Amino acid sequence: MTLAGHRAAPHQTVAAGAPVSFFGWWILATCIIAVFTSSFGLTYTVSVYVDPMLDDLGISRTLYSLAYAVGTGAGGLALLLMGRRIERWGSRRVMVAGASLRSNNMPRPHLQDTPTGPRSTRRARCRP
Questions:
Q1: Mean pLDDT for the chain overall
Q2: What is d(CA 84, CA 61) in angstroms, rounded to the nearest whole number?
Q3: How far apart are CA 58 and CA 55, in angstroms?
Q4: In degrees, to the nearest 5, what angle opens at C-alpha 34 toward C-alphas 28 and 29?
């Protein structure tokens, strides 16, 4: 299709006078935002919370930095292991296994103890 001397790619539809936008730039912008907001689990935004955490926990900045470095290193080692699992078993199986492990380790407030006992065993009783 020729429009004012420009040839459009076969998968693009061009309206009269409309500029052709390369879809790859949208993908690149989305990836940049995703990497910025989730790189190493909050590396770019954790600095906002350091001072309040140090005050609340009563620990030194050195101990906090050491704990953060150990956590980052553990995450890096886990990435090596997960890469091997993905190559061996495929990404779908690894994602399902990881999601199920993660969901099993999440806190369950409905099962926490209350002053009258565990919530999961408490039943509503109707008195006559």
A1: 75
A2: 35
A3: 5
A4: 25
